[in-house]
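User: My advisor, Dr. K., asked me to get a structural model of this assembly before our group meeting. I'm new to this, so sorry if the format is off. These are the inputs:
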Amino acid sequence: MIRTIRWWLFLGLGFYFCGILTVLPLSDAYQWYRPQWLLMFFIFCQISFPRSFNPVLAWAGGLLLDCLLGTRFGENALIFTVICYIAALVRPRFLLRPLWQQIGKISLLICLGQIFTLWFHALDGHNPHTLLYWMGTVSSCLIWPLFVKFFQGISRMFSVAAFSSRSI
Amino acid sequence: MLASFILIFAGERWPGISTVQHFLARAVSPIQSTVDMPISLIEQTEIFFKERVSLLTENASLRQQHIYLQAQVQKLRALEAENHELRELLQSVGQEKESFSEARMIHADIDPFRQQILLNKGKDQGVEVGQPVIDAHGLVGVVLDRNKETSRVLLLTDTGFAVPVQSVRSGERAIATGGGTGGELRLNYVPRTSDFMEGDQLVTSGLGGRFPAGYPVGVITSIQHDPSTRFTLIGVSPSAKLGQLRHILLVKQHDNALKQEITTAAAGSTVATDPKFNQKVEEAPSTPPANEE
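Assistant: The format is fine. Below is the predicted structure of the whole assembly, which you can bring to the meeting.
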């Protein structure tokens, strides 16, 4: 029971923290370099806590993000569900790979998420018309090792690491 | 996935969905408040520690400005009274004043591809969807969505935004739409023979009734004649200081003013606006209303 509460606290805190980083004001020039914080957090949760986290939770988180950003309701929910489902599929092989290969796989997942986002924006007529759009994937990959270390530390603090069968 | 698709493509048609959306928006509002808090705190501290001398100078300058504006208001009052009198003579519908309410922008980056901002006022403070938003320099946008305590404003530079405008110099009308991330507006489907010039001030024409007439929208910065098309490409720089928004005004139109603007709209004009607000394409009446002689 206490473990469950601690898990939900960890999830809520992680969402809150990544949500803040997602809407933190940045100048227009740096907007493109903002990592996909929430997508990274959900991928981390899917890979680290496969028994506790699932794509349904990612879907709920996506709906919350839609409300936070004012995007089409269900847009990020769909993206997060698909990405987390793929992350759950690739997880067994993912954990056996060295760090650089893990980063490569993460980049593919985040890139896929950005492709979906681009598709939705194109439907609305909000095409970015710049290759800088993909810098979000690059920055997410660069920050991924630090991001993982940080949230592993937090999960240990909340004693939820035991939920994971294997750590990254 | 299926649930997401249903929400994306059919969610807007279900009234229950907006309730869920508002509930979830309240759940994530602490994130927006947390982001806004340090910036607001810095601003307030800056004001608190501002030197006395600079405050006195600013006060003196504001006093001068106040007197100048008061004089202008007096002149406007006289003109308004005269206008009212003339309207009564014509037995037309009386034009009510718009009322304003002040709001503050919440510092939080929302979707970077959609030109939107968040305000610290919502349903509880009487904000309504579709309400025009202005700053000290001109039109800023329109309220797109409102929650209990916050509201989302679609800026006029967003590609989904459209406003009927009129040139102050020539009286020529057109529809201005947002240019997207470039921070400009465009005039669409303007015939080559139209009387627009670089430097022309554009104001809201009031057609369609969504925006009250006479608010500055922007200044024409470029006119390109493309030989391959029948229309002229016109670029407009917005009058409102969109990069420095802090305090803005929400305009509330009274029904009479709306009716008046619609009925006095120029004949033959067509107004297309953002479909998000369920606006209809309105044709100006070809015959005058019964109460106009």
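One thing worth pointing out at the meeting: Residues 162-168 of chain A have pLDDT under 50 and may be disordered.

User: Perfect, thanks a lot.
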